[in-house]
Design a protein that fits this description.
8-stranded parallel sheet, binds alpha-D-glucopyranose, 18 strands, binds calcium ion, globular, alpha/beta
C-alpha cells in the first residue's frame, strides 16, 4: 500500500489560477497568491494541485489559448514565482501538476503567426490548413464553442481548423515537428520539478485526415463520443512516447487526460502501464442524483478501469461545469447533497479531484450578462450562458466587497453575500462544509479494497476495508450499522441517515 505510486489514490485540488488568490491588486489571481495560500491547502489535506494554464496568452479562452508553452504570463507572475511555488509546495508535501494544452495554440503563438504571414513557412505545416470545398469550408465540422470549426485565411483562400475559438488554431499532430516540440515542452516542466500534467482535450489531437463529416446528436450531449474523426489510433503511440518521457524522471511523474467521452472502454484504452496513468471519467459528474443510476455508473467505471489495471478517477466539479449544489437542486437541498457527495468522492477507491470552492459548497453564481467573459457566452450570442458562474473568485474572508481575494476589482463580480461561505466564516464552524472536507480528507481510505453491500432502494453502501460508506440518496431513512461513526455529512446524525446525507462508519473490532 505504501509503495504504490502517489497518484493512485491521491486527492487532487484544481486551482483555477485567475480566481484563487490575487497578490498584486489587479483583480486576477496569480502564482504568488497561490503560494501565500499553501498553508490553507496543507491544512485542507490535499495531496496534489492541478493548476489551470498560466502560460503567456491573449486570454481569449482564459489561458487555454497558449502563446508560449515554456513561460509564465506576466499576469500570473514569472518563472521564478513558479519555481518558488513548486519548491514551497513540495516542502509542505504537496505535489504540483499543471495543465498542458496540446490540441491547439493561440493564434498569437509564433508558430501560427509565421504560418499566417507566409504560406511557405515551415510552421504552416504545424496547423490544419486545408483547401475549401464548393466555395465554403473543407467540411461541416463545428466548433465546440459555436459556429464553424474552420476560418478562412483570406490571403491564400485556405481554411484553418479550430475546434474551439478561431483564436485557438488546432495543431496538426501528424506533423513530426509538433510531436518533437511537445517532447521538449514536457521536459522543460519536468526539469522544473512538476509532478505531472493534466492533458487538455487529450482525445482530440489527431484528426482523420479524410475529414469525414460528423453528426452532433440533438439535443446537445455533454459527451463527445460522436466525434468519430477524433480519437484516432495514432494517440496510443503518442501517449506511449509521452510515458517514456515521464518515466525518464524520478518521483512517479504522471499524466491525467481530459477525455470527454462516455464510453469507458475508450477511456480505459488510453490508461495503461505504458500509456497514461489516469484519465478523468465524467460519467458520474453528468449523472443524476439517483442511487441506482449512480451505482451502475460507479460499477462501470470500476470494472472497465479495473480490467485495465488502472485506478478510477472521480470528478464532480471543474471549471467547465455548473457548481454541484446548483446541479443538484440548489439552496439547502443542493447544499446537503453536495456535502453527501464529499463523502462519496473521498470514499471511493482511486484518485479524487475537487475543484476550488467545492470545499466551501459554493453555488453557481449568476454573473450579469454584461460582465460575462466566457467565449461560449459571446460566441453563441448568449444562447449558452457559459462557464463564468463556476469561475467567480474565492471568498477568503467575511470582508466585502472582495472577501480577501484582491485589493482591486475582481475580474468577475463577487456577490455581496459571498462572505457567508468564506473560508474565514467556515473555519470557525465545526459543522461547515470546509470542516467536513478537512475531516474527509484526513480520514479517507487509501487502499484499493472495495465491495458493495446490498442496500435498500434509494441508497448506496460499500465497504472499504474496515470502513463502510453509506449514502442515503432518497430513501426515507437508512439505519447505520454497528461501529464507530467516523463522519457524517450533516450534524446531529447518530443512528439513522435521512435522505440526502452520507456517513462513514468504522466496523467494531469484535
Ligand atoms: C478543455 C478545458 C476548457 C477549454 C477547452 C479548450 O475542455 O477544460 O476550459 O476551454 O479545453 O482548451
Ligand atoms: Ca494578480
Amino acid at each position: 500500500m505504501t509503495d504504490q505510486p502517489w497518484w493512485r489514490c491521491a486527492a487532487f485540488y484544481q486551482i483555477y489560477v485567475r480566481s484563487f488568490q490575487d497578490s498584486n491588486g489587479d483583480g486576477i489571481g496569480d502564482l504568488e497568491g497561490i503560494r501565500s495560500r499553501l498553508p490553507y491547502l496543507q491544512a485542507l489535506g490535499v495531496d496534489a494541485l492541478w493548476l489551470t494554464p498560466f502560460y503567456p496568452s491573449p486570454q481569449v479562452d482564459h489561458g487555454y489559448d497558449v502563446a508560449d508553452y515554456t513561460d509564465v504570463d506576466p499576469l500570473f507572475g514569472t518563472l521564478t514565482d513558479f519555481d518558488e511555488l513548486v519548491a514551497d509546495a513540495h516542502e509542505r508535501g504537496i505535489k504540483v501538476t499543471i495543465d498542458i494544452v496540446p490540441n491547439h495554440t493561440s493564434d498569437q503563438h509564433p508558430w501560427f503567426r509565421n504560418a499566417i504571414a507566409d504560406a511557405s513557412h515551415p510552421d504552416r505545416k504545424r496547423y490544419m490548413f486545408r483547401p475549401g470545398r464548393n466555395g465554403g469550408p473543407p467540411n461541416g465540422w463545428t466548433s465546440a464553442f459555436g459556429g464553424p470549426a474552420w476560418t478562412l485565411d483570406e490571403r491564400t483562400g485556405e481554411y484553418y481548423l479550430h475546434f474551439f475559438t478561431r483564436e485557438q488554431p488546432d495543431l496538426d499532430w501528424h506533423h513530426a515537428s509538433v510531436q518533437e516540440s511537445f517532447d521538449e515542452i514536457l521536459r522543460f516542466w519536468l526539469d522544473r520539478g512538476v509532478d505531472g500534467f493534466r492533458i487538455d482535450v487529450a482525445h482530440a489531437l489527431f484528426k482523420d485526415q479524410d475529414l469525414p463529416e460528423m453528426v452532433e446528436p440533438t439535443p446537445r450531449r455533454p459527451f463527445g463520443d460522436w466525434l468519430s474523426a477524433l480519437m484516432q489510433p495514432e494517440l496510443h503511440p503518442l501517449y506511449r512516447r509521452w510515458r517514456r518521457i515521464a518515466d525518464e524522471y524520478s518521483g512517479d511523474r504522471m499524466y491525467v487526460s481530459e477525455i470527454t467521452v462516455e464510453n469507458q472502454d475508450t477511456i480505459a484504452s488510453y490508461v495503461a502501464s505504458d500509456q497514461l496513468h489516469l484519465s478523468f471519467d465524467f460519467t458520474l459528474l453528468h449523472e443524476q442524483w439517483d442511487a441506482a443510476k449512480m451505482r451502475v455508473t460507479i460499477d462501470r467505471v470500476l470494472t472497465t478501469l479495473g480490467v485495465a489495471g488502472a485506478p478510477a478517477t472521480w470528478v464532480f466539479e471543474n471549471h467547465d461545469v455548473t457548481r454541484l449544489p446548483t446541479r443538484y437542486g440548489g439552496g439547502e437541498l443542493g447544499r446537503r447533497r453536495a456535502r453527501a457527495v464529499a463523502l462519496l468522492l473521498f470514499g471511493l477507491p482511486g484518485a479524487a479531484f475537487a475543484y476550488q470552492g467545492q470545499e466551501l459548497g459554493l453555488e453557481e453564481i449568476d454573473v450579469p450578462d454584461d460582465k460575462r467573459e466566457d467565449p461560449i457566452f459571446h460566441r453563441t450570442g448568449g444562447a449558452r450562458k457559459g462557464r463564468d458562474g463556476c469561475r467567480v473568485p474565492l471568498p477568503w474572508t467575511t470582508e466585502p466587497p472582495t472577501f480577501g481575494f484582491s485589493a482591486g476589482e475582481p475580474w468577475l463580480p463577487m456577490p455581496e453575500d459571498l462572505g457567508l461561505l468564506s473560508v474565514e466564516e467556515q473555519e470557525r464552524d465545526p459543522d461547515s462544509t470546509l470542516s467536513l472536507f478537512r475531516s474527509a480528507l484526513r480520514l479517507r481510505p487509501r487502499h484499493d479494497r472495495f465491495a458493495w453491500r446490498d442496500s435498500p432502494r434509494g441508497t448506496m453502501i460499500f465497504d472499504r476495508g474496515d470502513l463502510t460508506c453509506l449514502v442515503n440518496v432518497d430513501a426515507s431513512e437508512l439505519e447505520l450499522p454497528d461501529g464507530e461513526l467516523l463522519l457524517a455529512s450533516e450534524p446531529g446524525i447518530t443512528t439513522t441517515l435521512p435522505p440526502n446525507t452520507a456517513a462513514w462508519v468504522r466496523k467494531g473490532t469484535t
